[in-house]
Amino acid sequence: MTSAQSPISIRPPAELPRTAGQLRAEGHAPRSVKAEIHDNLLAALRAGENPWPGIVGFSRTVLPQLERALLAGHDVILLGERGQGKTRVLRTLAGLLDEWTPVIEGAELAEHPLAPITPASRRRAEELGDELPVRWVHRSARYTEKLATPDTSVGDLIGDVDPVRVAQGRSLGDPETIHYGLVPRAHRGIVAVNELPDLAERIQVALLNVMEERDVQIRGYTLRLPLDVLLVATANPEDYTNRGRIITPLKDRFGAEVRTHYPLDVAAEVDVVKQEARLVAEVGDPLLSVLARFVRNLRGSAVVDQRSGVSARFAVAAAETVAAAALRRSALTGEHPAVARPVDLDAVAGVLRGKVEFEPGEEGRETEHLLHLLRLAVAETASELFAGLDLRPLADAVADGHLVATGERVSGADLLAALPELPVLHEVAQRAGVPADDPAPRIASAVELALESLYLARRVAKDVEGGTTVYGP
Q: Which residues cross the membrane (predicted)?
């Protein structure tokens, strides 16, 4: 997503025109939102620039479809399960708008000084002519987002009669008695509606005219407002909570429906975690790969309700939990830096169990399923990481009585001290991307992963008691 700078903290360049006359003299012509996006997207593609900063895993699937829809000038629905980055994609659209755009200073809506649409602004334009004051709006202020909820009203989205203005003496038929809702106030911008099916059907009907006829109907009379908005929305393909649906006439008015998806491979899943997670301790790539495979195993498991999906936020939260466990262990042992080890993975199942929806009949076995799929992810990661590496010397050392303990009160230095000097330990660290002269915590993380892989392959035993895990013969 593009950086969401606050429009309050951004100052427009001083040389920009400040009146309609100056604007006209510079040859400025009004341009629609869809035309802006079309031109800016095309310019970025031609220049080889990335129009979608921060979007991972969609470059060959979702984004080409979305780009075609935007170039065609279509309103768009993003369809996908929870946690697939739909909202992030929509927020990135603001980066395709012109950086600065002129509006009428003091107008209720963001009207172009050379193309006013409300009666009040048209009257001001006639009275002031070239002296009509101009204000410049940053693109970050032209993106409006609404989370659809069942209690959303037509007044919230479109507008309603303002009783205060009526009390001031205006008649009910006067267009200036209207308090505009979210969509008209987003004039010359982007309106994003998250979870569109959650809008009551009668509220969805209110958007029909906005999208097609571009007029607004409020309290029995119609205002012809040539609104200029790009309407985008998100929805789940199957609303697993049965909250609602998108009515057919509204769905028909969206020009494009783009399906999103979860990351297609482990590397993309790891990239998402690296980008999104706020880690309080170091979590190496091998453990991030374990978590990525763990999430992918959950998405393919028959015991998990796949209609609700397993959000990418699960992997992010899992990485943050593992990092927190490492930081806690670092505080208890006094070891620095704080580096996550495989033992920290045990914290994931208990903390994040509620983030996964299981099939009926699996009640009471949730933690068991999570631990099984987590062990499978560890085995898959270790198998790939240590492929072709002979770990027999490490297994033999454990079999000869070199018991290795790990846990929340065992430092990396203590773990390594339990083993004799073995060349294979340096090779294990090298496979994990850890130089031989690195601090003990990082080397210990790689060695512990090798020990866990030997245990899962039934080449060493493991005993867990009182928060301490011991690898032995």
A: none
> Are 273 and 416 within one domain?
yes
Of the candidates 86, 201, 74, 189, the one whose C-alpha atom is nearest the C-alpha of residue 141 is: 189
159-161 and 178-180: which strand pairing? antiparallel
pTM (2 d.p.)? 0.85
- Going by pLDDT thresholds of 50, 70 and 90, the confidence category of residue 3 is very low
CB 359 within 8 A of CB 304: yes
Q: Who's near 241: CB < 8 A, 6+ residues apart? A: none
User: What's the domain range around 442?
Assistant: 266-472
The one-letter code for the residue type at 186 is A
Q: Which residue pairs from 262-266 have beta carbons closer than 8 angstroms and sit at least 24 positions apart in sequence?
A: 262/81, 262/83, 262/84, 262/299, 262/309, 262/310, 262/312, 263/56, 263/57, 263/292, 263/312, 264/57, 264/61, 266/292, 266/293, 266/296
Q: Final residue of a domain: which of 205, 235, 259?
A: 259
Residue 85 and residue 108 in one domain: yes
Specify whether the CB–CB gap between 468 and 410 falls below 8 A. Answer: yes
Domain final position from 227, 242, 259: 259
Per-residue b or e along 264-274, where b marks 16 or more CB atoms closer than 10 Å to that residue's CB? eebebbbbbbe
Q: Tell whether 225 and 303 lie within a shared domain.
A: no
CA dist 221 → 158, 216, 279 (Å) = 13, 9, 55
Contacting residues for 379 by C-beta, under 8 A, at least 6 apart: 453, 456, 457
Average of per-residue pLDDT values in the chain:
90
Domains in the chain: how many in total?
2
CA distance 384 to 262: 22
Residues 144 and 193 in one domain: yes
Give the integer Cα–Cα distance in Å for 270 and 434: 18
CA 401 to chain centre: 49
Q: Would you say residue 273 has pLDDT above 70?
A: yes
Contact 229, 214 (CB under 8 A): no
How far apart CA 51 and CA 63 sit, in angstroms, is 10
> Residue 170 — very low, low, confident or very high, per pLDDT cuts 50/70/90?
low
Residue with tokens 């009379």: 221
Phi, psi (degrees; rounded to nearest 5) at 37: -65, -40
Q: What is the CATH number of the domain that holds 81?
A: 3.40.50.300
Enumerate helices (H) and strands (E) in the chain, giving the number of each.
19, 14
pLDDT in tens, 61-79: 999 999 999 999 999 999 9
Does residue 192 share a domain with residue 285? no
The whole-number pLDDT of residue 361 equals: 84
Do strands 216-218 and 221-223 pair parallel, antiparallel, or not at all (unpaired)? antiparallel
* Residue 354, Cβ density class (10 Å: 0-12 exposed, 13-18 middle, ≥19 buried): exposed
Collapsing DSSP to helix, strand or coil, 134 comes out as: strand
